[in-house]
Amino acid sequence: MARIAIAGFMHETNCFVPDVTDFENFANPPDRSGILRGEEILKTFAKRGASTAGFLNASENNHEIAPLLWTSTTPGGYVTRNAYERISGELIARLSKELPVDAVYLDLHGAMVSEEFEDGEGELLRRVRAVVGEEAPIVISLDYHANVSAQMVRHADAILPYWTYPHVDQFDTGKRAAVAMQRLLVDGRPQGRALRHLPFLLPLNFQCTLVEPSRGIVKAATGRLTEDMLSLAYLAGFPPGDLRECGPTVSAHAYSQEEADAAADEIAQLIALKEAEFAEPLLTPDEAVKEAMRIATSASKPVVIADTQDNPGCGGTADTVGMLEALVQNKAQNAIFGVVKDSDVAAMAHQAGVGAEIETNLGGQADLPNVTPYHGRFKVEVINNGVYQTTGPVAQGKMHNVGAAALLSIGGVKVAVASERVQAHDRSVFEHFGIVLQNLDIIVVKSTAHYRAHFDPIAETTFAAIAPGGHGANPIDFPYTKLRDGVRYYPLGPVRGG
Fold first, then answer.
1. Half-sphere exposure of 420 (CA within 13 A, CB side)
2. For residue 166, which of 346, 359, 278, 306 has the smallest C-alpha distance?
3. Which runs of E-coded beta strand occur in 164-297?
4. Per residue in 342-378, pLDDT tens?
5. What is the pLDDT of residues 464-488, one digit of tens each?
6. Distance from C-alpha of 103 to C-alpha of 98, rounded to nearest angstrom
7. Closest alpha carbon to 434 in 307, 367, 320, 336
8. What angle do CA 261, 266, 272 make, to 5 degrees?
9. Which residues, listed in sequence order, are joined to residue 305 by a DSSP beta bridge?
């Protein structure tokens, strides 16, 4: 029986939105548990479908677990120096007090950027390695959108990625991490390590594993694992991260350098050959609404549109209203849009009461190009406290508290409003207002791909729209300062520095 320290520090950082992510965002997030310490981790993840839960499930009764610290918060801007140092400092201090340990498991995202460190996870791994020494294995799990660095590959001994986007395999990822850990505890740390960066960035709209070519790439990578290997990780990257090593990667950890290189090269070459296959139509708000209205005339299910550039799950502000303007101007009927973050309007609706009409500016407060409020006269349909439980496969029963919330209507469009940012990756963001989504014609969600896991089963079709927002669908629009020269901004696109 080994003594294994476990911890989690997760953030997906969008470097191109105006707001930063401070310690308070980790301590009191609207949709998760805040900062867990010691035994709180074991209690919280006894059943929940996170990678940590899967790791604990697979390690139960086999090893002694030393729980350190676990925290995560909503994607957003740069993690402040204060937040990064307070959290990583406490994690390292707790690890030091638990010594000696035989191994360390870390549940990470892979796309964290702090004000000081562009490679947030790599720096954390460096600090962990400095504490535990060169003999103890370190296993990490990563989100599918991780930007993997050479430092991460060097200090970790196995990288276990989510294989799905929408992410529905976190629990299984943790179980795979436990299997890798068991091998490491028996056979020791691997000598073979490989990392390949693809020569193009991959917009999130092109990364969904429900469709090709991402589905086939993941299948090939999972099928390439051999007895000599601890992990083979294809990770699609997170383009809104301003760091040199941003983008899709293939990494391998194996007991021979030859096997690590061969596996990484094979999958990287496969991805390179499929570069031209990455594509998804991206429509203007007006085009998207008109197309949805056309399809809805003969459809038996709702048409779902992703307001992808204001996805709070990628750091978007969740307050842009370009899609609302398009819906109203085109006189869309039987439609819903959301969720818009506007605490002032939510409070105004609560004060006015159900059935009242309020004339106000909605959303558009973010300091972003072409983002302005929508002025209109809205009817208050529903008000509530914004507390609800998710029901879909991504969030898996997680409780949310988005503060005072309201369902408004204008013309034939309903608008879900909340006091906190929340991604519409789960039907419950609308259903907790009493909405029967299957009866609608058009649903517009602030999400990119996560929504598909729960909305696809009730949808006639889905597609993305490009309305103004903080999460650019095309990386060429990002003002990178650190991204390496020679990389294409998108598949078959122009070259940075070229």
1. 21
2. 306
3. 192-197, 229-235, 249-254, 282-283
4. 999 999 999 999 999 999 999 999 999 999 999 999 9
5. 999 999 888 999 999 999 999 999 9
6. 11
7. 336
8. 120
9. 444, 463
434 — pLDDT class (breaks 50, 70, 90):
very high
Instruction: Please spell the DSSP secondary structure of 120-172, one letter per residue.
Output: HHHHHHHHHHHHHTTTS-EEEEE-TT----HHHHHH-SEEEE---SS---HHH
247: left (phi over 0), alpha (psi -120 to 50) or beta: left
Q: What is the dihedral of CA 122, 120, 9, 172, to 10 degrees?
A: -50
Report the distance separating Cα 404 and Cα 487, nearest Å.
44
CB 4 within 8 A of CB 107: no
Length of the chain: 498
| Surface-to-core class of residue 321, CB atoms within 10 Å of its CB (0-12 exposed, 13-18 middle, 19+ buried) | buried
7: closest CA among 64, 94, 67, 83? Answer: 67
365, 450 in Cβ contact below 8 A?
no
Q: What one-letter code names the amino acid at 193? A: R
Please check whether residue 243 is in contact with residue 483, taking contact to mean a CB–CB distance below 8 angstroms.
yes
